């Protein structure tokens, strides 16, 4: 088999002398490859070529674009073992999770290959009898994205696939920590027949420099960003000068609520999946737990047992469930949040230890109160703070007491409660008796300072299209 893992690592390697960006395995602290740091003039060149390629691409029938996207999807699936290995080596997540992300990432390519054929406009009843009105949808043009290190494949395909399906070209700056996954799937897109100037990855030692070009270049008509609220807000300001369309998938502070009528075993399963996926480094991770009085002790005991059973280690080794954090800054932050919570009165119910390297023991903190800093902080690590509550109304106020509004979760077996709570939570996504809510058919996105725009689902392609209104007169 044509081994994408080896090919990518070799192709991407340009050697430390060439102003290259080193890619480091967070589990072993060793360099696994290098990628080129492009000059500013190279990035401008990429945008020029991308503009030409976009016009040709948009002129092709949707069915042709769909066919190439389908082939790309098939190649990603065929190479999923190699792609997963690359991801684990550069990002740290366990191999089974990496494989899951490749399948998840591929699902967006498949979904939008289908949606390419369904970008319908409307016919509109005219207000006068001598006119006929209709709308068509057209691609916005050259689209760009800045994508994060926590999902090095899926956060690219979730944006690139709808952009290409819509008829846009697509330029991405993948995170400098995890570019090999990005280069590998791009190589597969080229093998599928997607033109090289249409889908391009660009990196520079300075992410800010690339962001400045993306935001200021007049030919880039759309910027999609997944990352922190702080950076997202800065990018929105920068894009204002050239009035670009933007989609922002920003920070989260997901409450995970366990009501007194919940199935506690299911709630524990959901809590493990939601909190410890990718070692807690996801925007939709459960970030703070609210557990009702009468089931509090039962939930905490079972949760501690489940967390104690998690295997921490190098994700490439069989059976490992929690990998390293991405870098030393991430680890310092997470350990700092634990220390600060303890100083403010929290009890460590399990974990809390620095395990050396970039590994942090999965941790459960109890005696947490709403006023503690950790409740308002996006932890981005394997730490679960638990707050006790008694009344539903008090709970809703606390759950909504955050600047963020991305994901939220709750467990109950009462239908009435399920509807009321779901409607009152000020979040873009709600998991009800479910800890994993992301998939290609559902609209992913937030409210408040978690951003705007939706990815995946039937809405995802509209982020890359403009509506044009046609008025036929003199009829
Ligand atoms: C993210 O954390 O940014 C994405 C997580 C997901 O797609 O489930």
UniProtKB/TrEMBL annotation:
<dbReference type="InterPro" id="IPR010102">
    <property type="entry name" value="Succ_semiAld_DH"/>
</dbReference>
<dbReference type="GO" id="GO:0004777">
    <property type="term" value="F:succinate-semialdehyde dehydrogenase (NAD+) activity"/>
</dbReference>
<dbReference type="InterPro" id="IPR016162">
    <property type="entry name" value="Ald_DH_N"/>
</dbReference>
<comment type="similarity">
    <text>Belongs to the aldehyde dehydrogenase family.</text>
</comment>
<dbReference type="InterPro" id="IPR050740">
    <property type="entry name" value="Aldehyde_DH_Superfamily"/>
</dbReference>
<feature type="domain" description="Aldehyde dehydrogenase">
    <location>
        <begin position="18"/>
        <end position="469"/>
    </location>
</feature>
<keyword id="KW-0560">Oxidoreductase</keyword>
<dbReference type="GO" id="GO:0009450">
    <property type="term" value="P:gamma-aminobutyric acid catabolic process"/>
</dbReference>
<protein>
    <submittedName>
        <fullName>Succinate-semialdehyde dehydrogenase (NADP(+))</fullName>
    </submittedName>
</protein>
<dbReference type="InterPro" id="IPR016160">
    <property type="entry name" value="Ald_DH_CS_CYS"/>
</dbReference>
<dbReference type="InterPro" id="IPR016161">
    <property type="entry name" value="Ald_DH/histidinol_DH"/>
</dbReference>
<dbReference type="Pfam" id="PF00171">
    <property type="entry name" value="Aldedh"/>
</dbReference>
<feature type="active site">
    <location>
        <position position="249"/>
    </location>
</feature>
<dbReference type="InterPro" id="IPR029510">
    <property type="entry name" value="Ald_DH_CS_GLU"/>
</dbReference>
<dbReference type="InterPro" id="IPR015590">
    <property type="entry name" value="Aldehyde_DH_dom"/>
</dbReference>
<dbReference type="InterPro" id="IPR016163">
    <property type="entry name" value="Ald_DH_C"/>
</dbReference>
